[in-house]
Amino acid sequence: MRVLFIGDVMAEPGLRAVSLHLPDIRGEYDLVIANAENSARGKGISKRAYRTLIEAGVDLITLGNHAWDHKDVYELIETAPIIRALNYPPGTPGKGYWVFTHGEERLLVVQVMGRVFMDPLDSPFLALDRLLEEVEAEYVLVEVHAEATSEKYALAHYLDGRVSAVLGTHTHVPTLDAVILPGGTAYQTDVGMTGTYHSVIGGETETFLARFLTGRPQPFRAAKGPARFHATELVFENGKVRAISPYIWEEPWTPSEY
């Protein structure tokens, strides 16, 4: 089973990157997952952003701490192939996991949110313990949407040998630490951002500079510019991950275009 996980899709450049490139490679994968919590103008998800991703070939969408920034999500999350963090309190709309069937094998995809420098949700460690006792699958892919690299690494080691892969999202900075841990679990601290890197983590550079130089709040504006597609490939075989590989594509462009 071949799976492609697309890192945080950021605003119009991110949607454009997915629309331009994913259809060309979609046939190589059994399942395509995309984090889209920043797909609608940089914060949250909208019906338009959802349709763009699905039409391009995305099978499953994950969210994050900006999950609720657009009211469209409340309608989408109840029926569409979208998951939010598992460790939200009971009663939160939507689902924290998804089960994908490929032949006779099942892949459990689950997202948890970190708590360090983020919202004080339930423990992602204990939430995953409970889920792994309740849901059985040949393979388990855990997305950790978190700020602190230490929390991501700790969770990966905690789960090593119990899940197939742990992939980090949220910081919008791709890391070159893709590895298979001693217990057999594949791990990468952050898949990276799908969007324009002519920015400050996807935001307009001038606005962020004004914030840092003045110390005063500034309105958020998503950056424009050439798109870059960041993802991670996973190959599942015989009960474990056989390979983990970062994947990058850049939109052809000339400076005059932007």
TrEMBL record:
Keyword list, A-Z: Metal-binding
Positions bound to Fe cation 1: D8, E37, N38, H172
Entry annotation: catalytic residues: H66 (proton donor)
Positions that bind Fe cation 2: E37, N65, H145, H170
Keyword Metal-binding assigned: yes
CDD domains: MPP_DR1281 (cd07382)
Alphabetized GO MF terms: 2',3'-cyclic-nucleotide 3'-phosphodiesterase activity; metal ion binding
Pfam families for the chain: YmdB (PF13277)
Superkingdom assignment: Bacteria
InterPro entries named in the record: Metallo-depent_PP-like, YmdB-like
Protein name per the record: Metallophosphoesterase
